[in-house]
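Researcher: Please translate sequence to structure tokens.
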Amino acid sequence: MYTIKQASARTGVGAPLIRAWERRYGVVSPARTASGYRLYDETAIGVLQTMRRLVDSGWTASEAARAINAGEVSIDRAGSPVPPGSSAAPTTTGSRTDTAAGRRAALVTRFVAAAASTSPAATEAALDEILAAGSFEAVVDDLLLPAVAALGDAWAAGSLTVAAEHAASAAVTRRLAAVYQAAGTPARPSAVVGLPPGSRHEIGALAFAAALRRRGIGVLYLGQDVPVDGWLDALDRARARAAVVVVVTPDDRDGATAVAEAVLARGTAIVAIGGAAAGAGLDPDGRVLMLPDRVVDGARVLAEAIGRRPIGRRR
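Model: Translation complete:
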């Protein structure tokens, strides 16, 4: 087992970045000493080396973490550090060097550069380019959300200030709110979408709510940091058929579990969970609908479930 300082030395990844990757993407889950210090095993060292290899070769940290968590890349053998500046191509099931991927990468890079400039006009222009690259469904998973993730990566690497990251994220949130509103306001929502208690990173949840509305499903969007009783009250008042809890970071899991258990105890709505930090551990009894990673796919799966799945008693 290795301390974070030793892990940093073995992998070439700075300790602050290791903590950021753990917090944001959950790629490693270190053990803890009695005093609370992190300890990393050989598997974790290999994962961190793989993250570094992928990021050094041009992947965003969010893309690399998703591929690692999905088992789509080979994990480096622990103890075989990647030389500084290595750009070895990652092993994947498909090419990431085609022209379309290059265009997407250029748009994301332009957006992050605009965010760093703290120019509202430049940021809005970069967003215009992203949203003009195709329909909402065509760009949300492959361009818009990767661009937001790249903001976080830039902040974690120290190349973007907190203020600049917040300003650019707020610009994205405004655009998503406009898409959500433009999809129409239903007379009665079929789904309630939001974040569990304590969670404040709402861009993915709002993107999902917009995608679901665009499929013709009525949505009541609750937003950030919704307490358990707030979820129950919203579901009762709306008489909605589904509650969608979005789990962004590992720290959100306990709150999401509390919401899911409370809603399931009522027996009146489907409980669906999605988001970057969602996982099978949140559904030990198989009673929760675990949504696919991609927003568009998740919206389709939930829309189908709402259409076919009977709901139990209502109070």
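Researcher: Any highlights?
Model: Confidence is low (pLDDT under 50) at residues 80-98, 310-315.
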